[in-house]
């Protein structure tokens, strides 16, 4: 009887770990999708395909300021070998650098929120914010084939 309870407990613990592992992956993917959705209209404005809209820019910057801080906390060691993730092992090998990228992305977006007042300042400041995405992706995300 005790042995059955012990085995059942261990199985339940393993299932809980697997669920939480996939949960953090789902959470971080949702944050990335949200940031991607916010950068699409920004990119269109940068290319002149969409009219500059300060309210949209500010709304996007708010997401780009908040999400990186949340995102970098969603990489516990237990999610290192998770399936269906594009995260590279370098995240866990150099966690401090990874987290610093999140901090910089957040700070740059916050700075842009106060600095961008018109289309000219948008075209100057927004590339600084967006380059954070590429820098982090180049180092910590699997390349798409």
TrEMBL record:
Domain of life: Bacteria
Annotated signal peptide: 1-17
GO cellular component: periplasmic space
SUPFAM superfamilies: Cytochromes
Biological processes per GO annotation: electron transport chain
Stored PROSITE patterns: CYTCII
Classification via Gene3D superfamilies: Cytochrome c/b562
PTM note: Binds 1 heme group per subunit.
Keywords, comma-separated and alphabetical: Electron transport, Heme, Iron, Metal-binding, Signal, Transport
Annotated heme c binding sites: 133, 136-137
GO function term, MF aspect, one: iron ion binding
InterPro entries in alphabetical order: Cyt_c/b562, Cyt_c_II, Cyt_c_prime
Protein name stated in the entry: Cytochrome c
Biological source species: Microvirga aerilata
């Amino acid at each position: 009887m005790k042995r059955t309870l012990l085995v059942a407990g261990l199985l339940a613990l393993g299932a809980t770990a697997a669920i939480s592992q996939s949960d953090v992956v789902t959470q971080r993917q949702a944050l990335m999708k949200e940031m991607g959705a916010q950068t699409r209209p920004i990119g269109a404005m940068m290319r002149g395909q969409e009219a500059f809209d300060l309210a949209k820019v500010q709304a996007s910057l708010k997401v780009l300021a908040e999400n990186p801080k949340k995102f970098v906390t969603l990489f516990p060691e237990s999610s290192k070998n998770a399936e269906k993730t594009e995260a590279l092992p370098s995240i866990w090998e150099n966690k401090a650098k990874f987290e610093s990228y999140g901090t910089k992305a957040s700070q740059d977006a916050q700075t842009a929120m106060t600095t961008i007042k018109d289309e000219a300042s948008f075209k100057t400041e927004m590339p600084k914010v967006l380059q954070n995405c590429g820098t982090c992706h180049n180092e910590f995300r699997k390349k798409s084939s």
